[in-house]
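Entry for iron/sulfur cluster complex. Fields follow.
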Amino acid sequence: MAKSWDEINARIASGEAVVFTAEEFAALAADEGLSAAAKRVDVVTTGTFGPMCSSGVVLNFGHSDPPIRMAEIALNDVAAYGGLAAVDTYLGVTEPSRVRGAEYGGAHVIEDLLRGRAVRLRASSPGTDCYPRTEIDTWVTLDDLNQAYFFNPRNAYQNYAVAVNSTDRALYTYLGTLLPRLGNATYCSAGALSPLLNDPTYRTIGVGSRIFVAGAPGYVAWEGTQHNPHTDRDANGVPVRPAGTLAVIADLKQASPDFFSAATIAGYGTSAFVGIGVPIPVLDEDIAATLALTDADLTATIYDYGVQHRSRPALGTVTFEQLRSGEIEVSGKKVPTGPISSLPKARAIAAELKRWILEERFAITQPLQLLPQVGSQSQKPLQIKTGEAI
Amino acid sequence: MARKRLDLTFPPQQSLKPVIYHLVKDYDLVPNILRAQIHPAQEGRMVLEVTGNKESYAAGVAFLESQGLTVNEAASDIVLDSEKCVDCGLCTAVCKPDALTLDPEAQTLVFDKDKCVYCEACVIACPRRAITLSF
Ligand code: SF4
Ligand code: SF4
C-alpha cells in the first residue's frame, strides 16, 4: 500500500487528501486496525508548544540617513547581537532586559513585535567613513522592518526529562519550580502529539521539511543543536530520553502571538513558548505504526535535578499517560506531576496544520537531506582545558 | 449564611489567639486562616475566611476593629488572566491544595478558588505572569 510523496501532494493539491491529527490517527488505528488506517489517511499532523530557549529572530532595520554601522544594539533595553553587517541583528529569546531583568527579555520584545507594538531601538557605533552616524534612538514596528525571521537553533526536542528534586530546598529550574523531597515532578513534551516522537528515526522529517513555526509556514533548516539520535530507545525505536532536535526558520511577519508566548521562568530566566507543527506523510505501515502510538506507549526518564552535575542519576521511566494522570511513583513515593508544555496548544497547532493542508492546500516536502540518523553521532561534552594544556 | 474573606493587618505584639477564640465563641463565626505573616516586631497580616450568619459577621468585624485590627473586606484575591494563560500547567505542579488543576480530558487549566490558601506559589511559578495577587 506504499504511497509516494508525489501521490500525496497530488491529493493535497486536488483537495482529496485525508488528513488526521496524531491523536485522531491513533484512535482510528485502534478502531479499524493499522493497515486500514494507513491506507485511508495521507497525512498526519503533529504539534508541540513548550519553552524553547534556543530561539530567536534575525532582523534588518534598513539604513538611516546618515547611516550607522550598529555595534551596540538594544531593543526595549534588551541587548541584540551587533557582530553582523551594519543594520542586521540577531535577538535571542533568553536575553534579559538591562533594566527589568528576566521579567522582560528577548522573547517579550518578539511578542511585542508580533502584537504590532512599537519597540524602542537604540544603537551606537564608533563611526566610520562609510557609516558616520554614532548613535541612533528610534522606534520600530514589525511592519517597518525589511526582514524579520525566526532562526531557532534548537526546537521540538524529541522527548524530554521528567524532573524531580531530592534535596531539602526548592529548586528553580528551566523545568519549573521543583519542590523539595520529591514534592513534585515536571515534564515537558507533547507526548503522542510531539513531532519527532511520531517519526522517531527521522525518515520523513529532515532538512527542507515544510512545517508550522509559531503560526507561520516555515522549514526545517538543519539538525538542531545537541541533536542526538544515539540514545536509549524502546522496542518501537522511540527514544526514552531527550534525543533529536530541529533547527527551524520561518517568517516572523506571518507568525502569530497565539503560537509564540514570552515566558519568565522563576529563578531561571526568560524563554519563549514556541509552537511547532510537522506534517508527516503516511508512506507505509512502518511509519503508520509510530504515528499510531499513544501516551500509554511512550515513556520518559525521570532525573533528579537535585544533583548538580551534567549526568544526573536516572530514577526510572514513566509513560506519558501516567504523567498526564497527575501522579506518578518515584522511589516508592507518590509524586504529583505538572506539565510545562501545553497540550491544548499542541492540539490547536495540529488542528491548524490540518486546516492548512485541507483548505490552503499546504504541500508537504520530502527532505532535501536527512538528519543525522540513528547511530551516527553522539554529543560531546565540553572539556575544561587550560591554555598550557593546548 | 455568609462566607467572606478578610484581609487583617494588626499591630506588632498583638496576640491573635484570643481574638480568633472570641470570634468563634462570642460571635458564632467559623474562621479559617488562609494565610498569615507574623513577625513579633512588625505589623502582621492575615487572610481569614469566616463563615457565619450576616448579623454575627457584622458584629464580628466590629469586634476585630475594636481590638485594634485593620479589617479590609475587599480582601486579597488571586486573579487568573485567561488571556495571558497558555495552559502550560506549570502552576499546577506547585499548588499543593489542588486549587489549580488540569481538566483530565482537555488538559486546560481549572481554578477552584475555594481551595486556594493564598500561598502565592503559582504567582511566582507562572511563566506568563498570568496569575496575580490583587488587593
Ligand atoms: S495561591 Fe496559587 S498555588 Fe497557592 S493555593 Fe492559591 S492557587 Fe494554589
Ligand atoms: S502557569 Fe500560568 S500560563 Fe501556565 S497554566 Fe498556570 S496560569 Fe496558565
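NOTE: Residues 30 and 51 of chain B are 5 Å apart (CA to CA).
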